[in-house]
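for the recovery benchmark. tokens below, seq after
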């Protein structure tokens, strides 16, 4: 889709941001708030559309990993994410950096399940569709 968007074969799309999308006219972002690397681009909500959705990444550990190990890994990752050079590299690639407590990932998974499960069920989507 991105190739067709940039090449003018299609007039609009919702690609995940990456540096190549800078050559397209970015009208809005679908995140809940503006992104640091596109500060002048409004959100869809600011543009009058009730659309919020974004891809995200996290690091997971096996379910029974001892809490002290999770805390140690989480602390090291958060320190890495606080570095200005780390944040700059992620921004350049089009990623927002959050970090925070490990429970934040559990909460995000739960929120996304609550948001998308009814839509998936209503549309009868399965992994093969």
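predicted aa per position
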């Amino acid at each position: 889709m991105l190739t067709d968007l940039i090449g003018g074969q299609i007039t609009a799309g919702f690609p995940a941001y990456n540096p190549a999308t800078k050559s397209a006219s970015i009208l809005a972002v679908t995140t809940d708030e503006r992104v640091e690397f596109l500060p002048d681009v409004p959100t869809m909500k600011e543009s009058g559309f009730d659309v919020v959705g974004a891809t995200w990444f996290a690091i997971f550990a096996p379910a029974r990993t001892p809490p002290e190990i999770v805390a140690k890994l989480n602390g090291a990752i958060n320190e890495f994410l606080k570095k200005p050079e780390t944040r700059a590299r992620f921004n350049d690639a089009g990623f927002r950096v959050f970090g925070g407590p490990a429970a934040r990932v559990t909460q995000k998974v739960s929120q996304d399940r609550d948001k998308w499960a009814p839509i998936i069920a209503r549309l009868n989507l399965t992994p093969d569709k």
